[in-house]
Amino acid sequence: MEFSIYDFSSFTAWIDQSLRAAMAPGWAIAIELVIIGVVILAFYALVGLFLIYAERKVCAFMQNRLGPNRLGPYGIFQTVADMFKLLFCEIIPIKNSDKVLFNLAPYIVIIASFLTLGALPFAKGLQAVDLNIGIFYIIAISSMSVVGVLLAGWSSNNKYSLIGAMRSGAQIVSYELSVGLSVITIVVLAGTMQISEIVEAQRWGWFVFSGHIPAFIAFIIFLIASTAEINRGPFDLAEAESELTAGFHTEYSGIKFAFFFLAEFINMFIVSGVAVTLFLGGWMPLHIYGWNGFNAVMDFIPPIFWFFGKTAFVIFIIMWFKWTFPRLRIDQLLKLEWNYLLPINLVNLLLMAFIVLMGWHW
Amino acid sequence: MSSAKEYFKGLFHGIHSLIKGMMVTGKYFFSPGEIVTQKYPDNRKKLQMYDRFKGEVIMPHNEKNEHKCTACGICEMNCPNGTIEVISMQVMTEEGKKQRVLDKHIYHLGMCTFCGLCVKVCPSNALAFSQKFEHAVFNRATLTKVLNQPGSKLMKGVE
């Protein structure tokens, strides 16, 4: 077996073959599913902890503060300590709440983001499932989390929670349109919904460069709409600390609160990963047609670093949004979507279709 | 037609102001020299203090052990929670007149909320704030302080 950090497909194929050689095909698939589940679970916790730390540091620097700095060098163990504190927190049972839905809601939110991670390509050959409708699958699954949010708000039997959940529902339903349309713009350009082929189509130029102006507008709209979809500032009026204490997860404590908290950060990672895959070339290094020396240097950096580097960049932009802009009111939020993003998006889609029809893309 | 103009004008104006805001936070993010937080217990020796800081109320004395307090009691009247007690006494001056002078200016640090009213209302600027802020003590009685130094007198020229 040869292992290369540039191409994981031989590594995964080796695992598959050795499992199939050892047992029946059904068992081999079951074991592969378990391995993928465990890897994604570990990845989930690690990325969540790191993102919470990064968020606090970025927020601090933007406000001329230091951020966490006591535990470990530059406070890197702060979120680990926070996690242990949350794990030991008492889970307070709520009187008059709908017990089943109340306990189910965090898992729906977690599962929605968990399933989405499976379709993200982290590097060449490092993708759990490569569906032929991959991007459609991601949109469908990630919008499932609003069900969990609504259930959490409803079952808490608390008016603030319900208001938060209703706001979140209205917000996600409207902004899902913009996300979908900007994704469709790229699907028109790529001519496929399969994620591996979308990434492969960006070998000689990421879509945000090669797709002319429509791709760039779609990228901006995707960033704004997905920020709204993951309930982050300036669109965080679903949890609006100053108005609703914490919105839909007011009544949750301990590990269940941690689930919501973690899912929020993982969702940020996911939308950044999707934005990178669709617009910034996924794991594909930066290639410029004809510059062979430059391309060779870029190819020397492993794809997995390209993916995480670009994702970190997009995450930074989303954090930048949050710590710059004040929170929108609900009417401003809906006006932004229906008066600005949606019409611009439709015209943009038309423009992209025209460009593709005329064959002006490469 | 004008409504379409308004629409795009509003759109570009919005984008412009958003980018302006992001420039400000971006500038802060990339200039770590502007961080104002001080790592207090670590930099205790070279802590940077500011004049506006309200540490505790003191009564400045000059090198001849003279203060400016005329024992008028305005600070005592203005203190919202009875932190200050001004104890005065009557003395005979050289011209044979009775004069009220300060005996003890008692300051209960444990009750003080550092509102600064006493410093603000003092007609002769006898009170001030010091920069000292580490007030923790083992005995509550030590929080009651006498601000005028023993044997101090009223400064010449202060009525």
Summarize the structure.
The complex is a heterodimer of chains A (362) and B (159). Chain A is mainly α and 362 residues long.
Write up what this structure looks like:
The complex is a heterodimer of chains A (362) and B (159). Chain A is mostly helical and 362 residues long. Helices cover 69% and strands 0% of the residues of chain A. Chain A has 15 helices and no strands. Chain A has helices at 9-22, 25-62, 78-87, 99-117, 134-142, 145-155, 159-190, 195-200, 207-210, 212-229, 241-244, 254-279, 292-300, 303-324, 330-358. In chain A, helix 6 packs antiparallel against helix 7. Chain A is globular, with a radius of gyration of 21 Å. With 159 residues, chain B is an alpha+beta fold. Chain B folds into two domains: 2-34; 57-154, Alpha-Beta Plaits. The radius of gyration of chain B is 26 Å and the shape is elongated. Chain B starts with a helix and ends in a 5-residue tail after the last strand.
Write the layout of secondary structure elements.
The complex is a heterodimer of chains A (362) and B (159).
Chain A: H1 9-22, H2 25-62, H3 78-87, H4 99-117, H5 134-142, H6 145-155, H7 159-190, H8 195-200, H9 207-210, H10 212-229, H11 241-244, H12 254-279, H13 292-300, H14 303-324, H15 330-358
Chain B: H1 2-29, E1 57-58, E2 66-67, H2 74-78, E3 84-92, E4 98-108, H3 117-121, E5 128-129, E6 144-146, E7 153-154
List keywords for this structure.
heterodimer; A: 362 residues; mainly alpha; 15 helices; B: 159 residues; alpha+beta; Alpha-Beta Plaits; 2 domains; two-stranded antiparallel ribbon; 3 helices; 7 strands
